[in-house]
Amino acid sequence: MNITNDTFAIECIKGYKIPFKSIPPTSAFPQAELNASDTSWVVKLIDKMLDSGVVRSCSHTAGELISPIFLVPKADGSKRFILNLKKLNCYVDHEHFKVPSIWIKFFSAGFH
To answer: Is the CB of residue 21 less than 8 Å from the CB of residue 91?
Structure first.
């Protein structure tokens, strides 16, 4: 099952390998305690992601890295599942680039 029908998006990520600049330590980053209500939301959201094929079930393996999760309230009262990869990102090699502001585009196009 595909997570999207957008062929461009699929081609962009198919076979992509994360460019690690160093191997992260094998560990589980600290996880904040979830209350009963949030735990129920997490189970529901994970089941939904499993059913839609966004994630796959896996087993613990040697050398794994476990990142923490948290929930953010949405305007409709439901919750958004967030996988916090901030600490993992410290080990990923990435190029810095600056996105030009819209004002630079307007002025360079002659809109004053």
So the answer is: yes
Q: Where are the domains of the chain?
A: 7-108
| 7-108 under CATH 3.10.10.10, yes or no | yes
Dihedral over alpha carbons 65, 54, 56, 38 (to 10 degrees): 70
CA–CA distance, 35 with 70 (Å, rounded to integer): 11
Count how many residues are written for the chain: 112
pLDDT, one tens digit for every residue, the chain (112 residues) = 456 778 887 777 777 788 889 888 777 677 778 899 899 989 988 898 888 877 888 888 887 888 888 899 999 998 888 989 888 888 888 877 676 666 676 666 665 5
